[in-house]
Design goal:
By secondary structure, the chain is mainly α. The protein has one domain (5-332). 72% of the residues lie in helices and 2% in strands. Strand 1 (184-187) and strand 2 form a beta hairpin. It is globular and about 70 Å long.
């Protein structure tokens, strides 16, 4: 896929403009968004993603269009799982509802920056070292097994990232939120960081860890860095609205961890098969390509991904109907906002 520098910069510029608009609007009027506001914004973001995918399909071809949709759906599904941790962070730091939008938005901007770096590093590694697919595949399979084994464990046991613990020990902090969402204020004539600063650091560093499995996962579906970047942009842009809109629904997705484990395991195996097919390591098949290794087409991958997520959602909703609130908490971990 041949993407000119102009298209790259236009994409980054438009995404930055949308995020800047959000920052200015929310910064001017911190508030808890209404349901109508959330539905309109989320519909716009999803509609833009679909239109973008159709545009890729028309101008770059069926293969790349399908790769974008597979990557976008995968990143979105992994982002939904990330919302569980975001909710726990907001609850742990007692973030007022009217300030949660700003915290999420800045956290998302940090996530895009971090993921952009990971995408560039991943693209360079894939370009120069075909064996990196073995590492990506093995890591995803390990993550899938770990996720499946943890399955229904209580995720309310949130452990603060090391960087947050460092900040709490080494910089002056106040426990007061005040009437604004500023990250730094003056208290008794001294400049101190507010809880908002710590929350944003927690959200940013947590998403940095999430990127360790989401970026290898999408590279298992497409090698095109431009599609990897745009799929992540569209998945993250609707995350803030999704957080407020489906908070109550998340506790009903009792099998989500298992569904995502199967999804990551499938992509991990796909990466390993691709690595075998492209093999150049001398201690595997004498450094020759492994011809019997199957290549899973992107159409099959997209069908499997959608199928896994659909079955997981349906089974979760059916199961949750017969469960008490306590049983749902035990299956997914408390999700109170």
């Amino acid at each position: 896929m041949d993407v000119s520098p102009l298209i790259w910069w236009l994409t980054i510029g438009i995404a930055s403009a949308v995020l800047l608009f959000d920052v200015l609007v929310i910064g001017r009027r911190p508030h808890e968004p209404s349901r109508r506001e959330l539905i309109v914004a989320l519909s716009v973001y999803i509609g833009l993603a679909i239109l973008f995918g159709i545009g890729v399909y028309v101008f770059a071809g069926h293969e790349f269009g399908t790769q974008f949709f597979a990557g976008w759906v995968t990143e979105y599904s992994l982002s939904v799982d990330n919302l569980f941790i975001f909710i726990i962070i907001m609850s742990k730091f007692a973030v007022p509802r009217q300030f949660q939008q700003k915290a999420l938005l800045i956290g998302i901007i940090l996530a895009l920056v971090f993921r952009g770096i990971f995408i560039a590093v991943g693209a360079a590694a894939i370009e120069n070292f075909s064996w990196v697919f073995y590492l990506f595949g093995a890591f995803l399979i390990y993550t899938a097994v770990k996720l499946a084994m943890e399955g229904g464990e209580d995720e309310d046991e949130y452990e603060e990232p090391a960087v947050v613990k460092f900040l709490e020990r080494h910089i002056p902090l106040t426990s007061q939120w005040g009437d604004s969402a500023k990250m730094f204020i003056r208290e008794n004539g001294k400049r101190v960081a507010t809880p908002m600063f710590v929350v944003i650091c927690a959200l940013g560093t947590t998403d940095l860890l999430f990127a360790l499995d989401s970026i290898p996962a999408i590279y298992g579906l497409t090698n095109e860095a431009y599609l990897v970047l745009t799929a992540n942009i569209f998945a993250l842009m609707g995350l803030r609205q999704l957080y407020f809109l489906i908070g109550g629904l998340l506790e009903r997705l009792v099998y989500l961890s298992y569904g995502l484990a199967i999804l990551l395991g499938f992509i991990g195996l796909k990466l390993v098969f691709h690595a075998l097919h492209e093999n150049e390591l001398p201690f595997i098949n004498g450094g020759h390509h492994v011809e019997w290794a199957p290549e899973v087409s992107i159409e099959v991958s997209l069908s499997v991904i959608i199928g896994i997520l659909a079955i997981t959602t349906i089974l979760s909703l059916l199961k949750s109907r017969s469960m008490t609130a306590k049983e749902r908490d035990e299956a997914t971990g408390p999700r109170s906002m």
